[in-house]
Amino acid sequence: MKILAKHYAIEDCEIGEDTVVRDFVNLYGCRIGKGCRIAAYVEIQRGVTVGDRCKIEAFAFIPSGVTIEDEVFVGPHACFTNDLMPKAVGDWSVTPTVVRRGASIGANATIVCGVTIGEHAMVAAGAVVTKDVPPGTIVVGSPAKVIGDRRSGD
Q1: pLDDT > 90? residue 152
Q2: Residue 17 pairs with which residues in a beta bridge?
Q3: What pairs with residue 8 in β-bridges?
């Protein structure tokens, strides 16, 4: 791991070889694979797993309950949720989310918990994902809808 940061909080994490962590990052109890790039102002919470060779851009928020497989791109300001019924007081429960190998998530996308983003799928900038995204598809809008197939060039 190579920390290129002056200010950061990294507690109880497993971080792979050749991973680069930038300034003002908060990492808590997570596992980040080999060869990743973690940009400034990213928060990755307890229990999150990030695979190998992923790129997490600035200001991304990845809470407990999220699993990101290998070679995933998470754009700037992307936000994942982890509770379907959030509230300030009382019990809450984590609803898992999975991002499969090679998927890309655009800037400012919101991923509502409980979904799976399929292998090599692409979530457009600003999309709000509320349902599973099939492998290899491109989704846009709010709520996100399939508009094409990434594998065929559509």
Answers
A1: no
A2: none
A3: 25
Distance CA 98, CA 126 (A): 19
Instruction: Give residue-wise pLDDT tens across range 43-89.
Output: 999 999 999 999 999 999 999 999 999 999 999 999 999 999 999 99
The conformation of residue 30, written as its DSSP 8-state character, comes to: -
In whole angstroms, what is the distance from residue 143 CA to residue 109 CA?
Answer: 11
User: Phi/psi of residue 117, each to 5°?
Assistant: -100, 120
Q: What is the DSSP string of 62-111?
A: E-TTEEE-TT-EE-TT-EE---SS--SSS------EEE-TT-EE-TT-EE
Query: Which amino acid belongs to residue 116?
Result: T
Of 111, 125, 117, 122, nearest to 148 by C-alpha is 122
Tokens 């990101």 sit on residue? 68
Backbone Cα Rg of the chain: 15
Query: What does the buried/exposed string (b/e) look like for 29-61 if buried means 16 or more CB atoms within 10 Å of the residue's CB?
Result: ebbbbebbebbbbbbbbebbebbbbbbbbbbbb
List, in order of start, the domains of the chain with CATH numbers.
2-149 (2.160.10.10)
